[in-house]
Structure formats: structure tokens, C-alpha cells
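[agent] plan:
  1. take the single chain provided in the ticket
  2. run structure prediction with default settings
  3. attach C-alpha cells to the ticket
  4. add a short note for the reviewer (M.T.)
[agent] executing step 1
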Amino acid sequence: MKNRLVPAFLAATSLVAAELPVKRVVLYKHGVGYFERAGEVPSGQTARLEFKPNEMNDVLKSLVLDEQGGGRVTGVRYDSAKPARSSLNVENEVALAKFLDGLRGAKVDIELVSGKVSGAIVSGRVVPSTEQKSQQELVVLLTEAGDLRTLDLASANSVRLTDPLLQLKLREYLQSMAGLRTQEQRAVYIDGESTRSRQIRASYLLPTPIWKSSYRLILGTAPMLEGWAIVDNTTDSDWTGITLSLVSGKPVSFQSRLYDPKFIDRPFAELAEERAVAPELYRAAMGGAMAGGPPPAPAPAQMAKSSMMRREMAAEAMADMAPAQSNIAVNTAGRDLGELFEYAFSTPVTVKKNESAMLPFLQQKVEARKLLIYTDETQANPRTASEITNNTGKTLDGGPITVFDNGAYAGEALVETVKAGDKRLISYGVDLGTRITTKFDSEQRQVREIRANRGVIFAKASTEETKTYTIKNVDPRAKTLIIEHPLRSGYKLIGLTPTEKTATDYRFSLDLKPNAEQTLVVKEEYVYDQSYVISSTSPDQINIFLRNASLSPAGKQALEKIQAMKAQIATVDQTLRANQTQSAGLVKDQERLRENIRSLNSVSGQEQQVQRYARDLAARETKIVELRDQAQAEQQKKAALESELNAFLATVTF
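[agent] step 2 finished; step 3 output follows
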């Protein structure tokens, strides 16, 4: 017979604790749930709550306790996040002999078939048994008589630790292990000072799946909107007859590391007198002073560390089917909670642990107008849609909508949260009986305003763009079409007013006639500013400004004067360029004449020709000097004209 440590100690060492049932649950859209537990705790017992390890941070951050009947809560205890540690050598499924080997020196009483043997444990071991082809558990004791005895534990009826302190340590260890027996639960104990039975209410937050909305829109003579809430009970407790509320909105929420023990690095520090004195070495005398001794010890380095965790929470949406005719019992009351909205179920709700439920929270008539909507110009057909006005008096949480029209499935849509009194467009299909094409045109830039200040012209220009929507309704019935036209920064509509405007689009409503074609022309103007430095503006550009009808008389007079002054400077520039061209030609002729003279000087009988070349060279030199003087005069004239122009530009304003 093989002896094992058995969990019999657990029942004897467990705390006497009362469980508090769940009474109320409030589920939110940001990943947490609010829970209330309440119940009677008998005299002499403590209230006990159990949570998963990943729930403890939120529990420790949000736990609120209320004790009725005159008592007070004196404290809260909970299982540590760290595994229990003990000096006892206990392992999972450990043999009794090996367990006793870990208690060497401890005194035990072992009841054998032949009688009781008492002594101190020397060792314990497990050896193979050749006869029975199994293992044999043996323990060696030092008896009170001083004998060493080897005992076969297979024949032992019981083993008892005689040291009360060692018994207490074993009980405490097993008790702590009972709290961590699955590694999935952590117990929280609520202690009180009352000696009587007491009523305790505990409320806290837990990380929970968000609740989800699913709608059915039934179109007809009296449109009906039906809403279902999908909730998931992922806790380890049944929600039996609880009060359930669902809140739409997203308050700020975060996690704090409160459950795991935190340790920080601390610097090592010591007093100078606590350091050992190092030996000194003395050098030989060198005619006077002696020197020696070690340098002072360096100061220890100090470091600080910190860490922080974040968790991202994700939400998912589900689409549910429903029949076109529905008969459900809705028992919810809605109320505003500041920026939030609550759906409170007026009848008790039951959702077992690890189960989910779909609960009706809305069934009311709504205003719904069938229409078409065209947004994506890459598509040829608009979408079938409905404009829903939320006249329910409640906030409609965002979610999928399944649409039924005339008793048949029509499509599906998604809707964001809609406040009471607001309206939304939803699209759930494609209308193949309507085709739309677009054409784009753009006109050239026009200058609308011209002004100047301190030598700079500021012009306000504009471009006009036109988009034409051509719609053809091939069905023998009238339709209402909403065209969404992009709203672009800087562009302004010309001669057209939208039905309504969103953050990104204009909306234009058109009544389509049966079997007919019509157009929507959307003209927009884009106005922008340009600036020109007058001193570097070309005469052609100034002529463009002068021809513009928006130029004021004062501006026209100033620009004409500037144009005239620029023309004078341009004439001087033309003279200077002609001078430079003529001077360059004369210099080139001089080089040619000098080369001819050098060639003829070595030939006899060419004296007359050399003299003629010399006279031509002198004449060209005289002309070059004359042109140089003219260029200098023209440069001075240009500088004076530019100075006059700059002085005038500094005063020009119109």
C-alpha cells in the first residue's frame, strides 16, 4: 500500500466564511462592469468573495463596503498574488516517505500493526520492491531508547507530528494552498467587529465583456424599431434574479497595478566609520616630505526604475436575424446619467455563469423615411437607405440593424449611437434601378481683388469648379435621392444651398420622377491669395493687373507710373546691352589687327600695310574709350531711376 499526503487537512483548516450572492450588475461599453453583492453573514463568520487573479486590480481599486445593523467593517484580507512559501518540503503528489525526509529531526508517532513507535526522523526514502514489482516507502527513526529503526510505511495506520508548532505550520501551509488550489481564484475576506449576524453589501468593478446592441427595423405603414442587448456572464458566479442595467457611453477607465507586490531598488549606503581601514604603504624618504595612502573610496552609484502597464480594450459587433413580425416583452426604463444613458430592466434577470443572454430593451415606433443615398462616385448605383429619427426619448446605442421591408428581409446596416431627438441615415442595399454619372469642369483663374502695400502687390484670385451629377431613374415609381458631395476646405458653393451639411459632406435632396433623367449641377469657387514683389514683377504681369476690372483708380494710376518707370529702366538696360555688344566687337577686332601686325612685321615690303593696321587699331581704341564713358553714364542713369522707383514703391498703397 502506497501512502500519499491527502487533502483531508483542507476541510479542517479552511476558514468558516459566508458567500454573498450577486444582487445587481451594471454593464458598460468600455470593458468594466459594476457588481453589487449582499447577504447575511452569521455570527462568528466572515464574508468571503472570490475573484480571478486578473480581476483583483479593479477590485482593490473600486471596492466599497456597507455593513448594516450597527456593525462596522474592520478590515479586508485577501490571498496574496505570490505563491505561498513554506519551510516545509511539500510537493504535488509527494510520497509520504519523501515528505517525512523533508522533516528530518522532527519527532513523530507512527502507529503500526504491531504497536506505536516514537522517535526522531533520520531519513525517508522510496526504494523499488523486487517481489511486488512496485515501490516501497521506508523511514528511519531514532527511537527514545537510542535505536535506529527502519519502518515500512505500508504497514503504518497513521503518522502524527508530535511538535505542536510544526503541526500549526503544516495547517497554515495547507490552508494557504487551499486558497490557491486552482490558481484561478483569489479570496477576499471582509472582517467585522460585530458579534451578531450582520447584513453586508459589497460593490466593486470587474473587467467584463462589453454589452452589445442588435436592432431590427421593420418598415411599413408604422415603422417599428426593436432593440436587443447581448450580455455575457464570464464570471464564476450565477446571476440569479439580479437587477440588471446597461449603460451607453464611455467613461474614462484604466488599470492600476495594486494586486501584485511592488518592489523598488534602493541604493546601498554606509557610514564612513563602518568601512574597514585599508593598509598604507610608505615610500622611502627623498629629502623631506613623505607621501602615501590610498585614494578615497568612490561613492556608490544610484539607480531608479519604474514601470507601467497598459491594456487596450477592443469591442466587437454582432448582427442578429429576427422575423418580420415580433412579439416581445420589453421591461426597461431609460434615464440620462449625465453624458451616459442607462437601460434598467424592471424585472429580475437570470444569466448562469459561462452563459450569455439576449434581452429585449426596446420596441417602439419610430419615424423612418425610405430614400436613396449616393456617396461613392466610383459606383454607378446609389444605395437604398432610410432616414431614422430617434423619437423614442432614449439614447440608441450603436450597433447593427437588420432591416425588413414589407415583411421581407431587405438588408443590414450599422449605426452609431444616436441621442434622443437626433436622426441618422442608414444604407442597407444597392438600388439597381437608378444610375448616376458625374462630370467635372474647371474654369481659369480670375483675379477678384488687387491691393498693394510697401512694394508688394496682394492679389485675391479664384477658380470655379463644376461637378454635374446626371441621374437616371429607370423604375416606374418616384424616389427621393440624397447626394453627398464632398465638403472641401477653401471651396464655397455658388448659387446652391444644401439640404443639410455634415462634417465631411454637403447633402442635396432630389425628387426623382418615374422613368426620367435629371441633373444636379454643383458649382464651387476656390479663393486664394497671391503676392508679388513689384520691383521684380515683369511688365507683362503688371499689364495683366492694369487690365483687371477690380483694380481701383488709385491703383491703376500707381501701376501706370511704375510701368513707365520700369520702361525707362528697361530702355537704359537696352542701351547698356547694345554698348556692351559693340565694345565686345571692337575688342575682338583689336585682337585680329594685333595678330596681323605681328605677322607683317617679319615680312619685308609691308610697312604701309602695317601702318594702316596701326591707324585702325588706334581708331578702335578711341571708340572703346568713348563707349566706356557712355556706359558709365548709362549706369549712373539706371541707378538714379532705380533709386527713384524704390523710393516710390516704399510709398505705394492702394
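[agent] step 4 note for reviewer: DSSP finds seven helices and 33 strands in the chain.
[agent] ticket updated
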